[in-house]
Amino acid sequence: MNYLILGSESYLLRKELNKIIGQSGTDSTSMDTIFYDGQSPDFSIHTVLEDCNTPPFFNERKTVIINNPVFLSAQKSLSDTEMLSLEKYLKNSAYDADLIFYGDVTVDKRKKIVKLLQGNARCFQYDRLSLQDFKSYVSKALNENHVKLTLDGKEELLSRLPNDLENFHSELEKMVLYGSEMNKNDVAHLISRPLDEDVFHLVNDVVSRNIKGALHLWNDLFVLNKDPIYLVALLASQFRLLYQVKTYLDMGLGEKEIQRELKVHPFRVTKAIESLRGLSKDRCLTILNSLAELDQSFKMGLVDKKIGFELFLIRTAR
């Protein structure tokens, strides 16, 4: 059997992959489970197909996984001989092998090989959930695992979780072990908020000129011993992304087109577009210049890092 398992939600991709491997009566460490990197310079589809056509050693079936099959995208292609070999195999696959194309790859639906795969493989697409679907997923998982939260506890949890199922399931394990019902304070102590999420909120406070919010968040980060130099680098990275997204929006590109151009996660582009309301390209460049000057001042020891960062926030967000 052939499978096409693609998308940006790594947790659901891996769950589906493990399910298929399990159905073959083996596991990911078995000699009958073989992984190939489709991005490797040494990758050869001929070698993959040889493995598929070789009988399994210890099980009734074997599983061959091509991780990151970039040759299905618009960026890269197989050679003509490789293409013919793969087409021939897909039309007459080994009865005792599962060939899986797996990873976060955007396929080029115009390609003949992609069309052939879609007609000769079971296809699964797992993209990052929308915010509403993510909330529904979290609620269902909490109920299934008998995790009880007060209303303000659940609101606090959702405010601390990025839209990432991988991260959520790690935090879910802690909540299951906690046992008793959790309120807002319990969640705040148990669930750490990702630094990237704090930086996103800090950017929004700066963009919306919310000095009070920006300073409050900075104080929280300072208590957690976050280095201002590191925060400056993260802020600069985020504002560079905002500038790039704004440029592409002005050119008339849509959200998915921007994501493909910048080669970043779709969620980051969505968040950037939300942050851009009220932010001009000129102001974005001014902030980037201020961050570059602040970084140099820190590294040359010209200013106290805590005071310098606070002054930057006040001047930029006023």
UniProtKB/TrEMBL annotation:
Claim: Transcription is one of the keywords in the record: no
GO molecular function, one term: DNA binding
GO annotation, cellular component aspect: DNA polymerase III complex
Residue ranges occupied by any DNA polymerase III delta N-terminal domain in the UniProt entry: 3-125
Keyword Transferase: yes
Reaction catalysis annotation: DNA(n) + a 2'-deoxyribonucleoside 5'-triphosphate = DNA(n+1) + diphosphate
Entry keywords, A to Z: DNA replication, DNA-directed DNA polymerase, Nucleotidyltransferase, Transferase
An example Gene Ontology biological process: DNA-templated DNA replication
Location of the DNA polymerase III delta subunit-like C-terminal domain: 197-315
PANTHER family noted in UniProt: DNA POLYMERASE III SUBUNIT DELTA (PTHR34388:SF1)
NCBIfam families tied to this protein: holA
Family: Belongs to the DNA polymerase HolA subunit family.
Protein name in the entry: DNA polymerase III subunit delta
Native source species: Anaerorhabdus furcosa
